Amino acid sequence: MKKSLVFLMVLCSTGGAFSQTLEAGVFAGGSYYIGDLNPYYHFYQSQLTLGLVGRYNIDSRWTIRLAVNRGALRADDESTGFMEERMLRFNMNITEVAGIFEFNFLNYYTGSIRNFFSPYIFGGIGLFYGKPKVDQRELRELGTEGQNINFESRERYLFTNFCLPFGMGVKYSFSKRICMTAEWGMRKTFTDYLDDVSTTYFLDPELLEPGDEDYATLVFSDPTLSHKPLQQRGNSKTMDWYAFAGLTLTYQINLVPRGKCSEFQEYK
């Protein structure tokens, strides 16, 4: 009888230690862009990003995360100093929905006395939506690289695209239910048009004057009015990237009902 009781206590304790939990919370931080207008400088011209986060903790090492983030991207040649002679710029509001796996390097439990900290890495897949603009003018509608007339067989790009989020962070549990994470993550995209810049110019500024039908397109495509058709405007061999970095606060919800074994679930 005593052996059975001891076995039951150990079983309950072990089950509590690896009980699956759900966490829900918020994210706040910054977003930035890497691409034709800013190929090098991480965190440059970062914009405010806010989001909602849900985590399903499978065990002490693995977590599945669903996140919805809303941020902004911007860049301009004048600020970055890269190809200033183009004088191109863009801004974009971006919304992302992503499913992500997290792997903790150390055993981690929110609310644990011993396992309350761990660095982690993550990776997954996401879907994002954003329209490149200059101020409030949508650039795709202008066809700044000849997409509207199928110049060089170019087609209009999509506003909604897939991405591959990946990165790293640290987790810290500073109370029984609350977890804080600090995280940085890149997004590999499959488009070169986050910034509306990819290939070549297509209009000749010497053939257009103010009032002409395509003059507005010319001004947004080539603000300096100094480039000829087929001169290089961007690098079509590389895709654009964006990144989120910031802090997350989540609140833990136990999925296993509290019962006779609950006293062991607190000591993980």
Q: Could you walk me through the main structural features you see in this protein, from its secondary elements to its overall organization?
A:
This protein is mostly beta strands. The protein has one domain (22-258): Porin (Beta Barrel). It has four helices and ten strands; from the N terminus they run H-E-E-E-H-E-E-E-E-E-E-H-E-H. It has helices spanning 2-17, 77-80, 215-221, 262-265, and strands at residues 21-34, 47-57, 62-76, 89-104, 117-130, 133-134, 137-138, 160-173, 178-189, 241-254. Strand 8 and strand 9 form a beta hairpin.
Keywords:
Porin; two-stranded antiparallel ribbon; disordered C terminus; mainly beta; eight-stranded antiparallel beta barrel; 268 residues
